[in-house]
Amino acid sequence: MPTPLANIPVHVITGFLGSGKSTLIRRLIERKPEGERWAVLINEFGRVGIDQALVDGRDDVAVKALPGGCLCCQLATVLHAALVDLLRRERPDRLLIEPSGLGHPAGLLELLQGEAFAGVLSLRETIAVLDPRRLDDPRAREHATFRDQLALADGIVLTMTDRMPPGAPERAREALAAWLPGERWVEAAPHGRLAPGRVLDAGPHRTSGSATRPTPHRVAASSPGPWLDLEARRPAPGRPVRERGEALGQASLGWRWSPDEVFARAALLHCLDGLPAALRVKGVFRVEDGWIAVNRVAGHEPPSASEWRRDSRLELIGPPGALPGAEALEAELDACIL
């Protein structure tokens, strides 16, 4: 009989859309202690499951995706079952959870500290990942979920600092200290790199500072979304699978293509460059010289190499009126296939 699971460290890494959560997790995995087996539970607002593709690819790290809504409300009914299944199947030494960028942490933290996982999980310091430029954006500062992600965190990781002028991290620390009550550590992570000990050696999550879920999340919880089984709808050559979703004031549009289809890199990137800069754009594609990952936040960041091989995927997230026409964009993308 297997040894009962006990006191598995759990690290919740929150952050608003495009803050760099997946990059931070990927960098942590690169420096994972030898001999440890990790499990990573990734929740995405979009319905295609891109973040799973961005961190997948190691035998000692099991990645479970929960796409199609917010972990704390729309997918709350399946979260418990997904966690139980992941723990029993993988028996990890450590668990990392990445909620959606629009996800409110309150419900997740309640579950992890509740009776169902008492003695099995040990919730460590919760981390909020922050692009400091968001502090200058009134739409972000006025967003209840954005504020609560920071307020509920034990520590805040400042990303994108390698793209900012000198002194930006210090100004962000001062702004956060003036804006948020309580104490929390704040550290910069240029290129998504944070000292692993800051996460892996963290103490327990504090029990104070809880927040009530904002009204949009409570409304979404009353009409939970379905469990999305991506394997049940596998794309065939010439027949991509299209997914759409809308909730919490944002919309998603995405596709999956057969792994047998190869995109022309130059034509594909030209097509993606034509998308509105305000959209969140994530994807993995098979191109003529391998597989690439695209991960853009308000800009045209270059692609990187990807270990993903299951299928090509693209996800766009933005306000409902900002998304392009699905049929026209799909035709453009199909024209990029060799």
Automatic annotation (TrEMBL):
SMART domains: CobW_C. Pfam families: cobW (PF02492), CobW_C (PF07683). Residues 230-242 have a biased composition (Basic and acidic residues). Residues 196-242 are annotated as: Disordered. Residues 252-337 form the CobW C-terminal domain. It comes from the Bacteria. InterPro entries: CobW-like_C, CobW/HypB/UreG_nucleotide-bd, P-loop_NTPase, Zinc-reg_GTPase_activator. CDD domains: CobW-like (cd03112). PANTHER family: COBW-RELATED, ZINC CHAPERONE YEIR. Zinc chaperone that directly transfers zinc cofactor to target proteins, thereby activating them. Zinc is transferred from the CXCC motif in the GTPase domain to the zinc binding site in target proteins in a process requiring GTP hydrolysis. This is GTP-binding protein. It comes from Halomonas koreensis.
